[in-house]
């Protein structure tokens, strides 16, 4: 795993901070950076809540181990490291004693996959992982896809939800400034819809928005990617595309205006 010791130390700090935020009843937002940040953020969520579902929106499965990864990059391994089902597939990792894999793969659903390695595909089939690739999105539509994903990971509508969104889930035309872009992805509109539907559950505990890299591409590419990320985050936190209704106390007072008292 590239830069292993740095990743371990950083993710331990991330986990502690994210766990504190969630223990205070707040939604934890993590901005990446690469997707290895979820080693800390998802660890925090599964420890802060008794029962957790994860929606992983990504072009890639991030399900490799050091033995199967073609690149050796940490950002291609976080799901495998977090999954309880795969704990026996890892060698002892010095410095990682703080992290115990607790996430059942049955509580995970992918949306947007289109670049999956051979061993990742084998693992997904072996453990019957819920995965919606772009072919499924095309067949089911984005509403049907999200509804099925949520039904799978949270059938009784009671689990805390961790939503991890890699910007490369979007088509490269929508978000070009990212490290591993893959054409044929989600539109920004579809990405926003995913965020809106998860927000509507009322059980959103944490959000990751990762792999935005302002050092890649032209100034226009960077602006396009950052704007896309902003729209996704606004949707995740309840912004309505029709406009939000202001609370009564926020309305400007004008002559003759009367306001209904808030309950």
TrEMBL record:
Cofactor binding mode, per the note? Binds 2 manganese ions per subunit.
Recorded hits in PROSITE patterns, A to Z, give:
ARGINASE_1, ARGINASE_2
Q: Which cofactor does it need?
A: Mn(2+)
Q: What Enzyme Commission number(s) appear in the record? A: 3.5.3.1
Give the metabolic or biological pathway. Answer: Nitrogen metabolism; urea cycle; L-ornithine and urea from L-arginine: step 1/1
CDD domains, from UniProt?
Arginase (cd09989)
Q: Which reaction does it catalyse?
A: L-arginine + H2O = urea + L-ornithine
Recorded GO CC terms: cytosol; nucleus
Query: Mind telling me which Pfam families this protein's record contains?
Result: Arginase
Instruction: Give UniProt keywords alphabetically.
Output: Arginine metabolism, Hydrolase, Manganese, Metal-binding, Urea cycle
**GO terms under biological process:** arginine metabolic process; urea cycle
Protein name, please? Arginase
Gene source species: Megalurothrips usitatus
